[in-house]
Design brief:
The structure is a single chain. The chain is of the alpha+beta class. The protein has a domain of 156 residues: Heat Shock Protein 90, CATH 3.30.565.10. The strands form three sheets. It has a six-stranded antiparallel sheet, sandwiched between helices. Strand 10 and strand 11 form a beta hairpin. It is elongated and about 125 Å long.
């Protein structure tokens, strides 16, 4: 007969309840950690912030002493310690940036296999890379190593959590860390894509700005060349005039005559040089801002578009004169005020007119017309730049405002039309191009008089 005291059946039940309560509390901590990391990761796109948050959350939740985010560098095929948490600043500094081969250590094994593992005693594990401890000065007792894998299963590195304080790592710790690592890997990959997109935007912007600088320098060079030719002619006239002058009065008159053209032109040449240099300096400043990741938003103000057209025509008139091309602004309308970004609109019109001049044979014409025009019932402004030039083949015209745009000019990049399209888009407008080979090309821009309010 089995005789048991009342306490014999109660005590195991209490122990079981306490064990279940501990497991539930642990699960709750794990779930809170996952929720906290999820909220943190997806409000950040900075890689350093992401790695810091992921690592601290993992270390704190499992009660460990240290940890590392170790990412794979495809260029060198190395595993690099990108972010480190350790008991001392010196250890962190020594270990951050440390690189090891992908076939070395427990890190390399987990990275290649894509499976997490617990190492209860690193001294007994032959795969432990002891050189890492020697290099950092940190003594590792136990580790959990989990892969950092993207949503498509591609490994980008590993996360290691070291030296649990209270007890040994167990399967629950491994399960949690695998979940946190999956979240971290996804967020890190998103941040990388964000940074790549930002770099691509900056590269495109720098290309646009460089193209604009080349355009802005053209009138400066043309003005300097023209002034040089005029000065040479003036000196020749002076030498000839002074040599053949019979009296002082005659010599003075010949000097005045020889200097007249230069006297009239040099103020305009100097103004073109100053304005061109200032414009180029402003654009170089934008390159510096772009490199620092600063891309300015459009600055809209009510302005007369005709004034912008005239400011573009002024430096380009000399370029057109030398090419034998007439710049015609008789078609500028009245009351052509609209909300525009002056600088961006200047760049767009400069590109269109400057590109039209070399495409127009001597004796031809580049015309600029403006007028009020509605589009789908919305008040707006129409700007037309038309030339009597060579025109474009259809396959070129069809690609003008795409990423596949090409230039028909020797050494051209096709950037000019892309810049124009970006400006028109920033103004919430439209642009059309009509062209016929041998007869010319017409660009028609429409922008609203009032820009839509940004929510």
């Amino acid at each position: 007969m089995d005789v048991r005291s009342p306490d014999a059946t109660v005590t195991p039940t209490d122990d079981l309840i306490q064990d279940l309560q501990k497991q539930l509390e642990r699960r709750e901590r794990h779930l809170l950690a996952i929720a906290r990391l999820t909220a943190a990761l997806y409000t950040r796109t900075n890689l350093d912030d992401l790695q810091r948050q992921a690592l601290h959350t993992a270390i704190d939740t499992v009660g460990a002493s240290a940890g590392s985010i170790i990412l794979h560098d495809p260029a060198t095929n190395k595993l690099v310690f990108k972010y480190v948490v350790s008991p001392s600043k010196e250890i962190t500094q020594r270990l951050t940036g440390y690189a090891m081969d992908v076939d070395q250590g427990i890190c390399g094994s987990v990275f290649r296999a894509g499976q997490g593992r617990i190492t209860g005693d690193v001294a007994a594990d032959q795969q432990h890379h002891t050189e890492t401890d020697r290099h950092s000065g940190y003594t590792t007792r136990n580790i959990v190593t989990v892969p950092l894998k993207t949503m498509d299963g591609r490994a980008i590195g590993v996360m290691q959590i070291l030296n649990k304080v209270a007890q040994e790592f167990d399967e629950a710790d491994l399960e949690l860390l695998e979940i946190l690592a999956a979240q971290a890997a996804s967020a890190i990959e998103t941040a990388r894509l964000h940074e790549q997109a930002k770099v691509a935007q900056i590269v495109n912007l720098i290309g646009d700005i460089s193209h604009d600088i080349k355009n802005m320098v053209t009138p400066v060079v043309t003005g300097a060349q023209t002034l040089e030719l005029m000065l040479q002619g003036m000196f020749e006239d002076l030498d000839a005039g002074l040599a053949g002058a019979a009296t002082a009065e005659a010599a003075a008159e010949r000097v005045r005559t020889a200097c007249l053209a230069v006297r009239e032109f040099y103020p305009e040449a100097m103004m073109m040089t100053y304005e061109g240099a200032q414009a180029a300096q402003d654009r170089v400043r934008e390159i510096a801002d772009a490199i620092k990741g600063v891309v300015s938003e459009p600055h809209f103000e009510v302005a007369d578009v005709n004034e912008v057209v005239e400011s573009v025509i002024k430096p380009l008139r000399l370029v057109a004169d030398r090419a034998g091309v007439k710049l015609d602004t008789t078609g500028l309308g009245e009351a052509t005020r609209a909300e525009i970004d002056r600088k961006r609109m200047y760049n767009a019109l400069y590109n269109l007119i400057n590109n039209a001049i070399p495409e127009t044979p001597a004796g031809g014409r580049v015309s600029v017309r403006t007028a009020l025009a509605e589009q789908e019932g919305e008040p707006g402004l129409q700007i037309v730049v038309a030339d009597t030039g060579r025109g474009m083949p259809e396959h070129i015209r069809a690609r003008v405002f795409t990423d596949q745009a090409v230039s028909t000019k020797p050494g051209g990049t096709g950037l000019g039309t892309r810049i124009v399209k970006n400006v028109v888009d920033a103004h919430h407008g439209t642009i059309l191009v009509a062209s016929q080979e041998g007869k010319g090309t017409t660009f028609t821009i429409w922008i609203p008089q009032k820009q839509p309010e940004v929510a």
